[in-house]
Automatic annotation (TrEMBL):
Keywords: DNA-binding, Phosphoprotein
GO molecular function, one term: DNA binding
Residues that bear 4-aspartylphosphate: 51
InterPro entries xrefs: CheY-like_superfamily (IPR011006), OmpR/PhoB-type_DNA-bd (IPR001867), Sig_transdc_resp-reg_C-effctor (IPR016032), Sig_transdc_resp-reg_receiver (IPR001789), WalR-like (IPR039420), WH-like_DNA-bd_sf (IPR036388)
Pfam families named among the record's database cross-references: Response_reg, Trans_reg_C
Alphabetized CDD domains for the sequence: REC_OmpR_EcPhoP-like, trans_reg_C
Keyword Phosphoprotein appears in the UniProt entry: yes
Residues in the signal sequence: none
Organism expressing this protein natively: Devosia nitrariae
DNA-binding region(s), residue ranges: 124-218
Protein name as annotated: DNA-binding response regulator
Amino acid sequence: MRILVVEDDVNLNRQLKEALTEAGYAVDVAFDGEEGHYLGDTEPYDAIVLDIGLPQMDGLSVLEEWRRAGKTTPVLLLTARDRWSDKVQGIDAGADDYVAKPFHMEEVLARLRALVRRAAGHASNEIVCGSVRLDSRAGKVTVNGQAVKLTSHELRLLSYLMLHKGKVISRTELTEHLYDQDFDRDSNTIEVFVGRLRKKLPEECIQTVRGLGYQMLDFE
Ligand code: CA
């Protein structure tokens, strides 16, 4: 899962990036509204954390522009104060949720998890695919009830495939959603990680759809 953080407060931006990276997301950051708007417009994020008070272009205008252009990426708004008018304006502008500053990082993480999950059509934190069970809140995977140890890269890849189970996902889409913009993108990396996942999970779990990509299907 790849997240964009648009926050002009340098310290807060860094804290968000660190916490989100630790939670297993690939994270890009922007420090003003124009840069944030550009990145959100051109890169495929799974969710965006957007501050309201930004230089160059304020957060609400950024959000309105994205929505006008048809962007449906889930947006979590950071409101400066616990002001009801900010929240109403934010929701009207197309925000999916908001957190008032100062906030606990755990709350931002929980709200983001819910946004990403709901955008993919899942009501619960737990996604099941055959004998594989993913608890996205705890970041834990089990096969037939037995815990499986995955690296953060493997977990990221599996989470994306499971969130979009049934859908064929191309290597390009995986690369775009699993790595931040500074990552040296080499599509062979994806194959390596898929290979490792297949060794840790039931073999039929991740199907290769020739020429198109990968797909997870419910299996017995
Ligand atoms: Ca600000």
